[in-house]
């Protein structure tokens, strides 16, 4: 499913749109963020990991991918780094090297905080296996509660950040009428062998692994509520035959040019989002 013909907008967002334009207020400045599509093999295809945000959060009740805002420490962290250098990431993301490091660190940190998956290893060639025991969970909670930093976590365990396990995919910016806006870089990553996701309470009230095409169908049927960036991205990866095809597609993706959905209230079918 795509939103070429429009995608229904939740009533709350339509109300935000009306209130913003009536107020004449200046748009909020978007916060830089990162999100990760975790993928794993499933039969002759693959599945993606989705979480449903709790109602009290921004975009609550929506299904999305693990992710969140860049933390100030993400741009200054000193850590062992494998994969493209920050300058190379900057070229792909349209950012300075320091800003690119922050986005990549945020992607790896958020997927550990929200899904319990750690894209790191003891050296540049290996990646950790199972990280679901009580010790790792305590480390995850400390990171989530900002009692420790991501670089501190990795250094304390002698680990290298495997930035090469993240593949840049796209960049989406929240429409101007939203009171909370994000400038979000989307990445794809294969679930490391031996690791498993775990439901993290607090920010999500439901999680699931699902084939991307099935998720699109369920969104179209109203079973899974999503915003346009999630729906569109699911459709894009669903068009790939397998995980190798996803990786090939990622090499040619434009991950620097921002995409902002347009909300139209004038249609007979009610408020709908369209791509620019």
UniProtKB/TrEMBL annotation:
<keyword id="KW-0464">Manganese</keyword>
<keyword id="KW-0479">Metal-binding</keyword>
<dbReference type="GO" id="GO:0016818">
    <property type="term" value="F:hydrolase activity, acting on acid anhydrides, in phosphorus-containing anhydrides"/>
</dbReference>
<dbReference type="GO" id="GO:0046872">
    <property type="term" value="F:metal ion binding"/>
</dbReference>
<dbReference type="InterPro" id="IPR015797">
    <property type="entry name" value="NUDIX_hydrolase-like_dom_sf"/>
</dbReference>
<dbReference type="InterPro" id="IPR000086">
    <property type="entry name" value="NUDIX_hydrolase_dom"/>
</dbReference>
<dbReference type="InterPro" id="IPR039121">
    <property type="entry name" value="NUDT19"/>
</dbReference>
<protein>
    <submittedName>
        <fullName>NUDIX hydrolase</fullName>
    </submittedName>
</protein>
<keyword id="KW-0460">Magnesium</keyword>
<keyword id="KW-0378">Hydrolase</keyword>
């Amino acid at each position: 499913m795509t939103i070429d013909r429009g995608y229904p907008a939740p009533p709350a967002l339509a109300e935000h749109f009306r209130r913003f334009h009536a107020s004449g207020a200046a748009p909020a400045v978007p916060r830089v963020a990162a999100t990760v599509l975790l993928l794993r093999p499933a039969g002759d295809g693959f599945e993606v990991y989705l979480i449903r945000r709790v109602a009290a959060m921004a975009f609550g009740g929506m299904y999305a991918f693990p992710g969140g805002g860049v933390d100030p420490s993400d741009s200054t962290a000193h850590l062992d780094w494998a994969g493209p250098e920050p300058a190379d990431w900057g070229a792909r993301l349209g950012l300075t090297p320091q800003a690119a490091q922050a986005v990549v660190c945020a992607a790896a940190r958020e997927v550990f905080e929200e899904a319990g998956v750690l894209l790191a290893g003891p050296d540049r060639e290996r990646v950790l296996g199972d990280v679901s025991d009580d010790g790792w969970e305590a480390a995850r909670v400390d990171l989530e509660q900002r009692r420790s930093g991501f670089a501190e976590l990795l250094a304390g365990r002698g680990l290298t950040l495997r930035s090469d396990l993240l593949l840049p995919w796209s960049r989406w910016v929240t429409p101007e009428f939203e009171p909370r806006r994000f400038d979000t870089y989307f990445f794809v990553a294969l679930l490391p062998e031996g690791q498993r996701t775990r439901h993290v309470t607090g920010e999500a009230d439901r999680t699931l692994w699902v084939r991307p095409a099935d998720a699109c169908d369920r969104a179209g049927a109203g079973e899974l509520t999503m915003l346009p960036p999630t729906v569109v991205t699911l459709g894009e990866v669903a068009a790939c035959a397998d995980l190798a095809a996803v990786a090939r597609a990622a090499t040619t993706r434009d991950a620097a040019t921002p995409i902002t959905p347009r909300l139209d209230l004038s249609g007979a079918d009610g408020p709908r989002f369209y791509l620019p």
